[in-house]
């Protein structure tokens, strides 16, 4: 096993060196002619533009916090306002977004997604990210074809581009106006797989345009291979890097490793002809759940999460500023009727894909409340990926410039209109209401979780020989007092409010989820004991059947 790990480590290091050499070659090529005065002037102008963007982003962050306005919407409006202040024009580069920014954003979202939460909502997520994208893009394309007179290929491309949702904007709203965790998980999970499915469809349509033929069976087969291939690439790199994270447990090298995995998963997927986005999603989920949140020290975990939070924040800041800089208001005004028609088209497509599909969820999963469906419908905000896909359209596509103007205008109005109205809708729906009982409960749960986490870290330090036992016992007893106090207060709270707890849907659902996890843990322990031949299978069969009955009862409830 150590030999395999050594080879794996060498492979990852070699992969990182390859990417680093590519970046260094581009950097050296770009800076080798800096003796040219005109090139030096351009570099100086670029640095000035970068400083201006950073100052503007800082001002927008402060103003949006003060006036409780969506940060990303403020960035887009600021980009529109400062276009003339920049010494040179800066535009969106589709290859930069697709090859650098997109993997960073997807990986950052994936490592912060709990697989157990994702598993509990996987059915509505797959419905929205799979059939939902197909239905939404198809209806949008049909309405654009007959409403704007587009031919089929441009209409289908526009339909797929406008089926992509920008979850950054929606999650930014959720940070300002809290929503139930299950709804937030559905939104995050849909976005993780929505981008991958949309990019695969986009590539298939371009392939049909270049070859001039399409066979449904072959198209479905290729779609399956591309997605499954991306999953396999993500699994391989995810498990490999999770093991290396545990082995090194050094914050700086872990940062480099995770960056290499995020960018490398995408590039390897693209190189072998499978979905790079799906590969990044799967790799990020495994690294986050089996590496960062399980087997590394608390200090390394905090450093890694802080690094990726800053990376995601920085990338989003520049993307949304560049969206504002890229949009020409004169062109937008001239194409306004077509833009409004496109907004109506993609909203109709979203409506038909959200409400019927989520209504059918009740037949095989917990129903999605109708008020949540309103948020999922209006939260269909467009963003940078839509613009990047529009810019990456080949020159041979009929009406390419018209499509780009259409998508750019749609993205702007979506970010401003839906970005500003979504917080208002969430407040009107009263999704963020927390009872006094729930607030008290969660405050005590926070105290309990933090104290137990600190005790676990103390145990690790004692085992590693960092702490002498006398200091360990003194510090652990301090946390044990906090644990005991929180447990007693929680027990008293539940005993006093037993009736209200039983009648509260949110609390009942939370307790059901806890009971389900406990039952699954019991069943897992029994299966592990059977696998190791510690207990005979006949002895535990009745216990396993009893656990299964309890799990089914929880599902029925």
How is this structure best described in words?
This protein is 83% helix and 0% strand. The protein is an all-alpha fold and 557 residues long. The longest helix has 33 residues, at 216-248. It is globular. The relative contact order is 0.10. The model is unreliable at 1-35 (pLDDT under 50).
DSSP summary, beta strand count: 0
Uncertain segments: 1-35
**Helical content class:** over 70%
What composes the largest sheet? none
Q: How large is the radius of gyration?
A: 26 Å
Average pLDDT taken over every residue: 77
Order of helices and strands: HHHHHHHHHHHHHHHHHHHHHHHH
Strand content is: under 5%
Tally of helical runs? 24
- End-to-end span in angstroms? 46 Å
Structural class of the helices, strands and pairings?
mainly alpha
């Amino acid at each position: 096993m150590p030999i395999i790990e050594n080879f794996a480590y060498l492979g990852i290091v070699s992969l990182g060196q390859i990417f680093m050499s590519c970046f260094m070659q581009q950097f050296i090529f770009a800076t080798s002619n800096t003796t040219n005065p005109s090139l030096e002037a351009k570099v100086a102008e670029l640095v000035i533009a970068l400083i201006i963007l950073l100052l503007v982003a800082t001002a927008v962050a402060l103003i949006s916090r003060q006036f409780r306005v969506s940060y990303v919407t403020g960035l887009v409006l600021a980009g529109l306002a400062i276009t003339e202040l920049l010494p040179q024009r800066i535009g969106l580069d589709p290859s930069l977004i697709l090859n650098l920014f997109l993997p960073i954003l997807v990986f950052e979202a994936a490592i912060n997604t709990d697989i157990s939460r994702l598993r509990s909502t996987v059915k509505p997520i797959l419905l929205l990210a799979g059939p939902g994208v197909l239905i939404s893009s198809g209806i949008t394309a049909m309405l654009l074809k007959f409403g704007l007179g587009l031919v089929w290929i441009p209409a289908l491309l526009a339909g797929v581009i406008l089926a992509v949702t920008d979850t950054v904007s929606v999650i930014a709203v959720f940070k300002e106006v809290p929503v139930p965790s299950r709804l937030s998980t559905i939104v995050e999970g849909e976005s993780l797989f929505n981008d991958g499915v949309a990019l695969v469809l986009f590539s298939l349509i371009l392939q049909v345009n270049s070859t001039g033929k399409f066979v449904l069976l072959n198209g479905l087969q290729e779609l399956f291979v591309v997605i499954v291939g991306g999953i396999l690439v993500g699994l391989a790199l995810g498990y490999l890097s999770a093991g290396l994270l545990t082995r090194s447990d050094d914050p700086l090298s872990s940062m480099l490793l995770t960056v290499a995995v995020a960018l490398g998963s995408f590039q390897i997927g693209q190189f072998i002809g499978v979905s790079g986005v799906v590969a990044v999603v799967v790799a990020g989920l495994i690294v986050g759940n089996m590496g960062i949140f399980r087997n590394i020290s608390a200090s390394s975990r905090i450093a890694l999460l802080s690094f990726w939070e800053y990376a995601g924040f920085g990338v989003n800041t520049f993307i949304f500023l560049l969206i504002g800089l890229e949009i020409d208001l004169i062109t937008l005004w001239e194409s306004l009727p077509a833009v409004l028609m496109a907004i109506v088209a993609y909203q109709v497509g979203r409506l038909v894909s959200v409400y019927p599909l989520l209504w059918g969820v009740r037949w095989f999963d917990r129903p999605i409340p109708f008020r949540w469906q309103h948020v999922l419908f209006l939260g269909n905000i467009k963003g940078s990926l839509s613009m990047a896909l529009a810019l990456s359209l080949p020159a041979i596509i009929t009406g390419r410039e018209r499509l780009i103007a259409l998508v750019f205008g749609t993205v702007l109005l979506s970010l401003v209109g839906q970005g500003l109205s979504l917080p208002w809708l969430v407040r009107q729906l009263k999704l963020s209401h927390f009872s006094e009982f729930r607030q008290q409960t969660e405050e005590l749960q926070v105290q309990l979780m933090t104290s137990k986490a600190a005790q676990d870290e103390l145990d690790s330090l004692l085992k590693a020989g960092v702490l002498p036992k006398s200091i360990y016992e003194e510090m652990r007893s301090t946390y044990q007092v906090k644990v005991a106090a929180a447990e007693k207060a929680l027990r008293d709270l539940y005993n006093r409010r037993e009736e209200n707890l039983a009648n509260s849907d949110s609390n009942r659902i939370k307790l059901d989820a806890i009971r389900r996890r406990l039952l699954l843990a019991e069943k897992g322990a029994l299966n592990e004991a059977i696998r190791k031949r510690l207990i005979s299978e006949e002895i535990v069969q009745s216990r396993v059947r009893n656990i299964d009955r309890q799990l089914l009862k929880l599902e029925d409830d």
